[in-house]
Amino acid sequence: MPELGLNIDHVATLRQARRTYEPDPVWAAVEGQLAGARVITLHLREDRRHVQDHDLERVAAVCQVRLNLEMAATEEMVGIACHAKPTMATLVPEGRLEITTEGGLDIVAQQRELAEAVGRLREAGVRPSAFVDPDIGQIQAAGAAGFEMCELHTGPYARAWHESGGLLDAPPVGLELERLRAAGDAVVGAGMRLNAGHALNYLNIGPVLAIPDLFELHIGHAIISRAVFVGIRQAVAEMVRLIEGR
Ligand code: PXP
Is 199 close to ligand 1, i.e. is its CB under 6 Å away? Predict the structure, then answer.
């Protein structure tokens, strides 16, 4: 059964709207753990638009589950990760104009640079994960670069679901699911651990749970959106229940 990784970036986004001290992502990390999240994720972006450097330190101090630092594969970020030593670091492409991470990492195009970053992370005891599109070539390149895990980008699946009016059995949705399944097989076949995430929500997560060998599901936006109305602890608990099929 996969485990839930809770992304708490949006709590920091709300705080940064006022450049103030509340809501505190540390509180979200605590609430998330109390509700059953097994991973806490935060993305320290190069432009520091939401999570700040001190958040990483403070969240790490209260995190009793796995801590996942999402980051670009830059010199600065690799240095920060090696110093902070989260459980894992998920390398993502970062663009200043994007609203959120838009696509998977192009590992094929930068295999040598990524292999170097991966080597430094591993040496520091940080497990490297690659955020990738469900593309067999990219997955093979991830394995060759030394990544221990791949997180499959579920955004195209979620978009197909939305554009099909929320019909899980619509052909475009089935096609994207098939791509995810094949990519999942490739990840596991290459000896890496399989994670997935992006744009998953309470309504579209069902078929994703049927992908074999999934280890973690990384979800932020849908849970924090629901938390506005029901509170973080309940929103996380509801997602954990869905994942665990209760
Ligand atoms: N995985 C990665 C690599 C991401 O960049 C994000 C968004 O920060 C997520 C998962 C979570 O996506 P969402 O917020 O749409 O659930």
Answer: yes
